[in-house]
# Entry
Amino acid sequence: MAVLHIPVSGQRLSDQTAVTSYLQGRGICHERWEAPVYFADDAPEEVILEAYGSKLKPFMERAGYVVADVISVHSGTPNVAQLRAKFLGEHTHVEDEVRFFVDGQSLFWFHTEGEVFSVLCERGDLLGIPAHMKHWADIGANPSFKAIRLFVDAAGWVPHYTNSGIDAKYAAGT
# Structure
């Protein structure tokens, strides 16, 4: 279940209806899906995609996504520190960033119209960040998650860093 945190007010929301409403009010898609299937760290991508195909296919068709893949990060992932660093800088994409968490968790930060807030996404959370929205993510020092990513074109996911420095003000989840 997603947990939303607004640092300036100290407010934390864990009620899923309230979290979804807050995010939708800022143009961010959030849904809760059943995630009943557990996978080993080395589970093949096609097995994970097939397990969630009945939910993915209609969502992708409705939203215009044509490509799905799986990102799996765990203790055996090579260069995990570099991978984490890649996501920690505030950036945008020219395409939506959509992830469905099959397992584990990641912390996403948003910077919209002067407001900064975070959402901890966990197993069963689907998060859709609109194109051009400023954000960054912290997968943690010891990450363990699997997420299905959806694309119109994978090239659209190239990060465009803002170099604003705001991400450093919120390092370590503060």
